[in-house]
């Protein structure tokens, strides 16, 4: 039986139903990376525990699996998934930007493998309380970690029009950002924008509703929702911190693997890996990112935009 610790303190109970989640590029990862039985793995985004379970099965009683996640419920669900592994399992509710601090708290200096799957899971998208999806009307929250103070509603209602347009353009890469911000600013004069449905409708009015002839097949609100989620959770800043810490705590011949889902994330990973390669710190296992094949995409549509990059510490 695994040792499960929550933030180094108390064992936690599983809450709510266990939803099946398909880990992206799992087969590719296990083909590329082999851990020693006494190895130490850090899953920086434990999620539903799918990736960790596959690697954890290869670890023996002397092995250690540390799982981090900013979302408390994800940690609870991972506990259930990983409870029968032979290795020691430590699950911690925290953002992966604190990876070095959390690893050292366990008395571990270096690790064999760091994995970060940056995707939003189906479970999180379907969680009404998180307010990540425009498919259902829900509170406009978007916080992975409820300890964060600022919600998406706070940003939408309190950010001036120009700054809001800049945010949507920077993090959502939406060329219609100024028009979207203008429509939002006009709407919030009459009433606060507090739900995902309200915001999605505003963006649709600004850019055209689904079904109209557009240059892109994605929902008009997709990029605005992405931008807000990134801003609320400081995703890019935290990813940069993770990448900086990884080069320090991965041992020689150890690995770091990152699965990203949009160009902003992938660019940060690509640049970090290349910079460390030039400095003689990393050897790139993937010169170009690995992407899912047709079969995996057919089985799991959320995998279609995934890109996997792997580096090995020199």
Keywords:
13 helices; Rossmann fold; elongated; seven-stranded mixed sheet; disordered N terminus; 2 domains; alpha/beta; 42% helix; DNA polymerase, domain 1; 314 residues; 7 strands; single chain
Report on this model:
- The protein is of the alpha/beta class.
- It has two domains: 26-123 and 235-313, Rossmann fold (3-Layer(aba) Sandwich); 128-233, Orthogonal Bundle (DNA polymerase, domain 1).
- Helix content is 42%, strand content 14%.
- It contains 13 helices and seven strands.
- It has helices spanning 26-32, 50-56, 72-82, 99-105, 122-126, 152-158, 161-172, 177-190, 196-207, 222-233, 235-249, 263-278, 294-299, and strands at residues 40-43, 64-69, 88-93, 111-117, 250-260, 282-284, 307-313.
- It has a seven-stranded mixed β-sheet with strand order 3-2-1-4-5-7-6, sandwiched between helices.
- Helix 3 links the parallel strand 2 (64-69) and strand 3 (88-93).
- Helix 7 crosses helix 10.
- It starts with 25 loop residues before the first helix and ends with a strand.
- The model is unreliable at 1-19 (pLDDT under 50).
Q: How many angstroms separate the termini?
A: 34 Å
Q: How many alpha or pi helices?
A: 13
User: What's the architecture of the largest domain, going by CATH?
Assistant: 3-Layer(aba) Sandwich
Q: What do we call the CATH topology of the largest domain?
A: Rossmann fold
Gross morphology is: elongated
Using the coordinates above, name the CATH class of the largest domain: Alpha Beta
Quickly count the domains.
Answer: 2
Trace the largest sheet across and list its strands.
Answer: 3-2-1-4-5-7-6
| Residue-averaged pLDDT | 90
Low-pLDDT segments: 1-19
Largest sheet: 7 strands, mixed
Strand content: 5-15%
Number of strands: 7
């Amino acid at each position: 039986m695994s040792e499960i610790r929550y933030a180094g303190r108390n064992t936690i109970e599983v809450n709510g139903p266990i939803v099946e989640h398909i880990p992206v590029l799992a087969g590719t990862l296990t083909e590329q990376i082999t851990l020693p039985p006494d190895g130490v793995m850090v899953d920086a985004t434990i999620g539903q525990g799918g990736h960790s379970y596959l690697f954890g099965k290869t670890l023996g009683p002397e092995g250690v699996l540390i799982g981090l996640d900013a979302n408390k419920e994800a940690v609870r669900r991972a506990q259930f998934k990983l409870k029968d592994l032979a290795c020691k399992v430590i699950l911690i509710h925290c953002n992966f930007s604190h990876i070095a601090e959390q690893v050292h708290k366990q008395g571990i200096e270096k690790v064999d493998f760091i994995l970060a799957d940056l995707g939003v899971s189906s479970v999180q998208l379907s969680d009404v309380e998180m307010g990540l999806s425009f498919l259902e009307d829900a509170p406009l929250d978007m916080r992975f970690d409820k300890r964060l103070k600022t919600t998406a509603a706070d940003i939408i209602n309190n950010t001036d029009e120009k700054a809001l347009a800049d945010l949507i353009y920077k993090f959502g890469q939406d060329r219609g950002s100024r028009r979207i911000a203008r429509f939002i600013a006009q709407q919030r004069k009459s009433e606060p924008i507090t739900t995902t449905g309200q915001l999605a409708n505003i963006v649709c009015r600004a850019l055209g509703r689904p079904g109209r002839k557009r240059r892109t097949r994605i929902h008009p609100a997709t990029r605005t929702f992405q931008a807000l989620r990134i801003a609320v959770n400081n995703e890019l800043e935290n990813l940069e911190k993770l990448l900086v810490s990884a080069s320090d705590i991965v041992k020689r011949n150890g690995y770091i693997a990152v699965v990203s889902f949009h160009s902003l994330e992938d660019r940060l990973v690509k640049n970090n890996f290349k910079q460390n390669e030039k400095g003689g710190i990393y050897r790139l296992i993937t010169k170009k990112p690995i992407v899912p094949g047709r079969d995996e995409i057919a089985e799991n549509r959320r995998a279609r935009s995934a890109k996997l990059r792997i580096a090995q510490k020199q």
